[in-house]
């Protein structure tokens, strides 16, 4: 059994009880993904699996055999940051930075959800042809990622700045 993590094939550990988070941090030294609450409540450990966001502290590594996992380390292109990573810097979307990797991974998956037309709790109508990425919609979709420092305004600004132009084509 193997996983593809940031484009690299990795053997799944023999111990089926190893969480995906512990595999990433303790066995592969991919420490960008953070262990926050270790109970699935804070979002600090959010990673992407085949482009969808998951909470890696609640996931067993063996569950993702044959799947593509992307961590914060896998988002940069060579020596260049992903545009959302740069936007977090430009908009002060972090203070201590502990939640930032999970926030960024979650935001990338959230944008893909919008493009697919997946509604949220605050989407104006479930049958709408257009989901508008406004502050309320964005905050609802990012509500599973907590920032203990309270850098939410910078986080929202970074996401909106990065994706507002590309969201004009979200209409279905």
Give a description of the structure.
By secondary structure, the protein is of the alpha+beta class. It folds into 2 domains: 2-74, Ubiquitin-like (UB roll); 83-169, DNA polymerase, domain 1 (Orthogonal Bundle). Helix content is 30%, strand content 11%. The chain has 5 helices and 5 strands. It has helices at residues 20-27, 83-90, 100-115, 135-141, 152-163, and strands spanning 2-5, 8-11, 46-49, 52-55, 68-70. A 5-stranded mixed sheet has the order 2-1-5-3-4, covered by helices on one side. Helix 2 (83-90) crosses helix 5 (152-163). The longest helix has 16 residues, at 100-115. It is globular, with a radius of gyration of 16 Å. The mean pLDDT is 92.
List the helices and strands and how they pair.
Elements: E1 2-5, E2 8-11, H1 20-27, E3 46-49, E4 52-55, E5 68-70, H2 83-90, H3 100-115, H4 135-141, H5 152-163
Parallel strand pairs: 1-5
Antiparallel strand pairs: 1-2, 3-4, 3-5
Helix pairs in contact: 2-5
Short description:
This protein is of the alpha+beta class and 172 residues long.
Poorly predicted regions: none
What's the CATH architecture name of the largest domain?
Orthogonal Bundle
* CA-CA gap between termini: 39 Å
Please summarize the sheet with the most strands. 5 strands, mixed
SSE pattern, N- to C-terminal: EEHEEEHHHH
Q: Domains counted in the coordinates: how many? A: 2
Rg measurement, Å: 16 Å
Secondary structure: number of strands: 5
What's the CATH topology label of the largest domain? DNA polymerase, domain 1
Helix content: 25-40%
Give the rounded overall mean pLDDT. 92
Strand order in space, largest sheet: 2-1-5-3-4
Total helices: the number is: 5
**Mind telling me the CATH class of the largest domain?**
Mainly Alpha
The CATH superfamily of the largest domain bears the name [2Fe-2S]-binding domain
In terms of DSSP E residues, the strand content is 5-15%
């Amino acid at each position: 059994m193997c996983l593809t993590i940031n484009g690299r094939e990795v053997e799944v550990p023999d111990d089926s009880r190893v969480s995906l988070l512990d595999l990433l941090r303790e066995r592969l030294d991919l420490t960008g993904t953070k262990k926050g609450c270790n109970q699935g409540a804070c979002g600090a450990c959010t990673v992407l699996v085949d482009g969808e966001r998951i909470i890696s502290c609640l996931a067993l590594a063996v569950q993702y055999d044959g799947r593509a996992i992307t961590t914060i380390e896998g988002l940069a292109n060579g020596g260049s940051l992903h545009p959302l990573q740069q936007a977090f810097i430009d908009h002060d979307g972090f203070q201590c930075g502990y939640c930032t990797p999970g926030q960024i991974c979650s935001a990338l998956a959230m944008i893909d959800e919008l493009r697919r037309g997946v509604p949220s709790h605050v989407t104006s109508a479930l049958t709408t042809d257009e989901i508008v990425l406004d502050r309320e919609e964005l905050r609802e979709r990012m509500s599973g990622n907590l920032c203990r420092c309270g850098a939410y305004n910078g986080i929202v600004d970074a996401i909106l700045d990065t994706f507002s132009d590309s969201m004009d084509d979200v209409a279905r």
